[in-house]
């Protein structure tokens, strides 16, 4: 097992609040200030969890530059009062950035007792299989 530092615990909290603010901002008809605050908290939380250098390396890898431009371009559009278009661009960049993590997360959620039974229903299971990609890639 590995030990989680206080900064990483704080970062998980910041990222959680960031996602919550983004969700509430979307529910309140794309409230620009909540979306911008949520984005700021999410990025600050990610930085606390993995560190500043690894965060910069994550966002600015050569093969992820299109995703990073979309993600940060969406944040910029939100700040400049184009919340709906910015959110679409940001979600696109988010899926490109974190697409490598989705198979691991989906396979983990399938092992959670109650949620796993729901995620293994025939129609939903087929959809999640397409989202997760090749299942042999994620086995440990």
Automatic annotation (TrEMBL):
A single cellular component GO annotation: Golgi membrane
Segments passing through the bilayer: 12-30, 36-53, 65-85, 91-109
InterPro entries: Got1 (IPR045176), Vesicle_transpt_Got1/SFT2 (IPR007305)
Domain of life: Eukaryota
Keywords: Golgi apparatus, Membrane, Transmembrane, Transmembrane helix
Subcellular location: Golgi apparatus membrane
Membrane topology qualifier: Multi-pass membrane protein
Main location: Golgi
A Pfam family that the UniProt record links to this protein: Got1
PANTHER family: CGI-141-RELATED/LIPASE CONTAINING PROTEIN, GOLGI TRANSPORT PROTEIN 1-RELATED
Similarity comment: Belongs to the GOT1 family.
Descriptive protein name: Vesicle transport protein GOT1B
Organism field: Cryptolaemus montrouzieri
Lineage: Eukaryota, Metazoa, Ecdysozoa, Arthropoda, Hexapoda
């Amino acid at each position: 097992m590995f030990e989680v530092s206080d900064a990483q615990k704080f970062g998980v909290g910041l990222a959680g609040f960031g996602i919550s603010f983004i969700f509430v901002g979307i529910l309140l008809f794309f409230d620009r200030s909540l979306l911008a605050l949520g984005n700021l908290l999410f990025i600050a939380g990610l930085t606390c969890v993995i560190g500043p250098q690894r965060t910069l390396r994550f966002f600015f890898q050569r093969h992820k530059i299109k995703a990073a431009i979309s993600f940060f371009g969406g944040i910029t559009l939100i700040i400049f009062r184009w919340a709906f278009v910015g959110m679409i661009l940001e979600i696109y960049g988010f899926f490109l950035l974190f697409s490598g993590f989705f198979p691991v997360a989906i396979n983990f959620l399938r092992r959670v007792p109650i949620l796993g039974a729901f995620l293994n229903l025939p129609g939903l299971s087929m959809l999640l299989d397409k989202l997760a990609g090749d299942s042999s890639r994620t086995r440990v």
